[in-house]
């Protein structure tokens, strides 16, 4: 009996409907020099399948990659209005990160992390992001290997 992978529908690739909306305008410091809010949207343990690695055997088949995200934003307007269109949409965020990871096929986890950071800032309206990317099966003697980076909007201007 064949067990179905829950992340894939029968018959092929996952199909994701992501509604495109203009990015949320990042908050700007006030005239008094206050820094913008440091509220955070968290995604932990997002498992994606990606072709990633420098060795030829790593380029043959997708492998598990675990992604943690911490997006800096101002959640006050979304909370006050209880309105999804004022917030960072977790479902759309996870779908776009998964899609990017599946398409990018980088050699380095550093490259994947940088691309995900750019996506979070430019397409999802975060004004800062921490991205952690780990490959749990990269080395036989390590639970995982990976990188953690932090970027803000100025890094992509």
Task: Please give a handful of descriptors for the protein shown.
3 helices; alpha+beta; single chain; 4-stranded antiparallel β-sheet; GTP Cyclohydrolase I, domain 2; 157 residues
Task: Walk me through what this model shows.
The protein has helices spanning 76-81, 90-104, 109-122, and strands at 39-50, 63-73, 128-135, 145-152. It has 157 residues and is an alpha+beta fold. It has one domain (39-156): 2-Layer Sandwich (GTP Cyclohydrolase I, domain 2), CATH 3.30.1130. It has a four-stranded antiparallel β-sheet with strand order 1-2-3-4, covered by helices on one side. Helix 2 runs antiparallel to helix 3 (109-122). The longest helix is centred in the middle third of the chain and has 15 residues, at 90-104. Mean pLDDT is 85; it is low at 1-6, 8-22 and 29-33.
